Amino acid sequence: MKKVIFCVLFVFATKSVFCLNFVEYGDTRTNPDRHLAVVTQFSKDNPELVIHTGDLWDGYTQSQFLNIITSQANIKALLYANKFLVARGNHESESAVLAFTPSIVLNKSILYSFKEGECFFVCMGYDPGLNNTYLLTQLSSLEAQTSTWKIVYAHKPVYSTGSHGADGITSEGTSVVNFRALCDSFGVNLYFSGHDHIYERTKLIYKGMVVDTSNNIPNSKKGTIYIVDGCGGAPTYPMSQTPPFWRKIGLSGVDNYGFIQSNKDSLVCTIKSNNGTVLDRFVFYNSTTKNIISTAQNKDLKILEIKIKDIKLSFVLFPSKFSTIKIYSVSGKLLTKNSFSLIEKNINMIDLSNISSLTRGVYLVELLNDKKIYTKTIVLK
Questions:
Q1: pTM for the full predicted model
Q2: pLDDT per residue as tens digits for the range 110-121
Q3: Beta strands 149-153 and 119-123: pairing type?
Q4: For a Cys-Cys bond, which of 160, 206, 215, 258 suits 330, CB 3.0-4.6 Å?
């Protein structure tokens, strides 16, 4: 049998041990039925926070928007707990956003920041290039400096080849340069936007240059990934078929959302369609984490032991309630030919002998039972 020797860092990404699982999406105007389909799908991921990058309800009523968000009990609970938060788009006024009940901003302001788990968020409203002083103040705060991951969101994009690309973030003077410089200086990992009704992700950008093209990015590497994700139900836009130097992936014509799983060790971003199909996936991982096997104990799951021997990865679990196990590349490709079932009492095992090569990088293991999907991130260093 083929022998494989690893130095392995296990980062547990189950819902119960993740610091925060959240959804990002945007541009839900015009088509309430399509918006409902997206909300229905992401409710299945059971997020603990939803951020919306603007263009909320133009083309239908605020009451319909409210009905869509409250159609799923768990998302309704987030809304009433002030965990469904938005950036203002160009299709709604500031006053309408601030007057919406229950509140969909923080501190009765279009601009706001907050910390959840290991993530620090800054909402920059409609056009982030107009509020660089605010961004500087928030990223300089103690909360930001003590957070592992920094995420900024607004309506207008920084990089886009969609219909609005040229008139995205304000380009007059040096505002766009200053905005990117702040992202560079303070280690912003992700910038989410909408406005263009496409999905487009940059490579890792630092000082206007591409510094990493992979899907597995160590947090020690400087740079930001800029995302346009305006496919929450609004009419989709075309995009350039000639990729610019900064584009990693671009999709049009598919309603989607992002599901982000975060803890101190990793930030896993998965883009899903409104039927749950994985369209894109990438990972930031904390390269300073020690090479140890961590254990997680909570009411849902207790990891008693994890072993790699030869090329079999086994999970000794209590309670033994997982029905299947799958392993994926970070891009979403299923690497195992089969779903592996419980083979002994309290033991789940994945036989990796059918994987031709397992190089350094990040892999995702899914443990499924009849109610939940637990995702474990494995970083092979």
A1: 0.76
A2: 999 999 999 999
A3: parallel
A4: 215
